[in-house]
Amino acid sequence: MTREFDFYVVPTPIGNIQDITLRAIDILKNVDLIACEDTRTTQKLLNHYDIKTKCISYHKYNERERVNFFLSELKSGKKIALVSDAGTPMICDPGEVIVEELVKNGFSVTSLPGACAITTFLSQIPRKGEEFTFVGFIPRSEEQIQILVKNNCSNNLVFYDSPERILKTLKIIQNIRGNINISIGRELSKLFEEVKYGTIAEILDYFKDGIKGEIVCMVYSENNSSDKELDYKITELKNKGYSDKDISVILSTLFNLNKNSVYKRSLELHN
After folding, report:
1. What is the pLDDT of residue 226?
2. Domains of the chain: which residue ranges?
């Protein structure tokens, strides 16, 4: 017997319709209302599992206006489940607004374990250690991408991207970080699932005719990456007109670095 909650965050398949738990099916059958991004997409899943529960749209464009309705329904004793089109809600999908309001108003919230592109991807690629930085969908502008990859040389950087943009994104990263190793996955759990590991040049060559499907990518951390990150930070401050002394004070204060070491490195880069 499991505890009952007011509000359930329920993961749905990211591709293969069979990737849903028995508990998720049971919850979706027994709640009073299912909040979903696109009712048409969710209805296909519900039809497959003979789930008759009523759906109501809940997406990033109507999150706030739906909050009062959900609060009213919950106060009347109803149970609600939240799903996204695919995967786990609130992982690059709507849900943040309603969950925050539910917690504020004392309603009980739980999340079911289930499908998520990040864990599906990371559990099948070569990597050392458990740490990684996930940034959701990578920024669109080249400048923002440059800042992001410069600040994450020492981290395994994981992000989503669209098939229309990913090859351009990889070229930007290559220009900043060189021909480093990456892993890239597309169409995870679907018929044409593909996961590739190699240098950026190898990946770009492999997909030279284009790439399709939902994309998740990891840029690997580098040896001596902390030195490279420091150089990026020093160069950025130099370009803004700061002196070597000022740079040593700023970076040592912000990042708990040795001031003399930063000053010495700044002098070396200046020359």
Report:
1. 61
2. 7-115, 118-140+158-219, 225-270
